[in-house]
Known about the structure:
single chain; 3 helices; 0% strand; RGAP1 protein; coiled coil
Amino acid sequence: EQGLQLLELGGSVEEDYIRIARCFEATRQRCCRLEQDGRRAREQLARVEAERAALEVKLKHARNQVEVEMKKRHRAEAELEKQERKLQLVLELLMREPWGNEALSREQCSVLSALAGRRLGAALAPVRRSSTVDESCQSLLSHSDISYDRTEDDV
């Protein structure tokens, strides 16, 4: 009886060892799959970080270009205002001087007075071109459509 019990015990222990070995093998295979998944995830992360860094460089260049273009625009607007003031002075001079009226035809005088009136009205109104867009051009793209945010420059 005792021998039979030992044989039964031995048989069940052997099966237990086989089950444990199978569990260890399944766990080892699972660990290998997880390690491969982790390696793929790290590679993908490295690719995405490289792409993000490249995009940040492009964004920085685009922001710098926008800043340069805005400065050019402000300089051009200042020059335009200066030229408009000169034109206004010339028009006023031509309209006020008696010799100016004599030298010009009646049609030229009416055109100049209409032009002077329009320029004078525009000159008296506060001009803020840098913050608004001349809507008469029906432009599809204006500088006001550009979101220029420097808060992420430190990234």
